[in-house]
Amino acid sequence: MSDNPIAVTHLQNRDRPSFWTEHLLLSGLPLLLALGFGLLLAVLIVKEAWLFAVPVVFLVPMAVLIARYPFATIAIWMIVMPWFPFAGIYKYVHFTFHWLLIPLGLGIILLSRMLRLKKHNPAQPGPAELAMVAFAVVGVTSIFVTGNNWKWILTFGQRFLVPFMAYWLIQLANSRGRDLKRLVPIMLLLTLAECVIGLVSWFAPHALPSIWHTAVVGYRVVGTFGQPVAYACVLLLFMVFFYHDGMSRGKGSASYLQILTCGLAMVCIFFTFTRGVWLVGAIVLLALVYLYPKRTVLLILAVVLTMALLLSGVLAREFTYAADRLERSEEDTKARAVLANAGLHMFYAKPVFGWGFGNYDRYDWKFLERVGDTDPTEWQIEKGTSHNTFLTVLAEMGAVGFFLLYFPVIWWLGLTIKALPRLPKDGFWSRRLLIAMWVCIGAQLLLWQDIDVRFFSYCLTLFWINLGFIANMVRGCLGPDCTGISLLHSA
């Protein structure tokens, strides 16, 4: 034992957690949250505000769970968000669960690091993270410089800052295979639910709740998203993840359920009757054939034979509609060309910093002009908007914003090439998973050429969640010296 009492006292104080960190925060904070929600619930019951009282009942255990396991905010957000359109009173659901939930989880992790409640190595942002911060600064600055209302900051936060926070949450929580596997059952159940809702909307649209009714319900399968490309974007991502999990499990009832659900998702993706979706879906299937040849070929054959039988009889009307969609492709392409031409000319007019975030719909009508033998329609002039995410970013944020936004993708793709040989070939957290995650990234980027994803925060946030897991896997292989953030590398 040391003869120096000061040194001994210092070592004891360093190794022994304080009462604040050990008891008050880890146990007391969840208790205080529960008591606070309890008082709120009591007031709501007394006032008979049942519409608000029922959700509070679920908020109490949710608050305790989040305080102890911040990554749960990702799972809760994933479960809640698909069911509510961003319209009317449902905007408050988006504000509560999208604007507050993920930032809350990130805030708890940052607080834990600041107070050293758990063992953490120092976090040092790398080039990818710094590019995201720079994009946020450029975006907020452009809102004020171009004369937009400050309220556009809330929209900017919904479309970009919250997705960035989801990425950062995964980074700082060092979420890896164990956390991702906890999301797989959620992805599976959500896919099953979306497939069922999509098929019901196709065959019996009157059976759907009014909040899921859109102009395309009854003609194309869109689930709860109201848009076929957004619907396919989510299904393709979920499908790849739980299909990989099923392949890594081997044989068993859970594996068979995941494979069958993948086949059902393929059918629903076909019923979106969107040419771009069909093309991207085919590319994803080819990638799955490369990763898991035998089972995937058998699954595709089974789905194709089943669809052929159904389309020749029960689904003959659907086959006719699909053929009609292909025949009308030239007309739709010409209409999109007029809108795309406007977006390109907006970028050419201000190529460096663009017109400012949120200004695309404000100025695009000035650039609508005749393309070939197609004139802009009255609807395009008054209400038309971009159908291409990349053109929107280029027009609003210029080349600088575009580069900063997508630099993290380029950065992690370059490091992935270096990391792939060091990963195990088989298992869940493996080389195949990393390739599968990049297949999802590629599929989303291709689909975004046919949709303006700024209107679909769920798709955009899933993109950054996926990239966050890619970053953690690559960093676990190459180490913090190569990637810029020093974290614990436990599996």
Describe this structure in words.
The protein folds into two domains: 18-120; 128-329 and 387-483, no CATH class. Residues 1-26 and 486-491 have low confidence and may be disordered. The protein has 20 helices and no strands. The chain has 491 residues and is mostly helical. 71% of the residues lie in helices and 0% in strands. The radius of gyration is 25 Å and the shape is globular. It starts with a helix and ends in an 8-residue tail after the last helix. The longest helix is centred in the C-terminal third of the chain and has 31 residues, at 389-419.
Any chance you could write out the topology, listing elements then pairs?
Layout: H1 5-15, H2 19-46, H3 50-68, H4 72-80, H5 91-114, H6 127-145, H7 152-172, H8 177-203, H9 228-249, H10 253-270, H11 275-291, H12 293-311, H13 316-327, H14 329-349, H15 360-363, H16 378-382, H17 389-419, H18 431-447, H19 457-478, H20 480-483
Features:
mainly alpha; 2 domains; disordered C terminus
Give a summary of the structure in a few sentences.
With 491 residues, this protein is an all-alpha fold. The protein has helices spanning 5-15, 19-46, 50-68, 72-80, 91-114, 127-145, 152-172, 177-203, 228-249, 253-270, 275-291, 293-311, 316-327, 329-349, 360-363, 378-382, 389-419, 431-447, 457-478, 480-483. Residues 1-26 and 486-491 have low confidence and may be disordered.
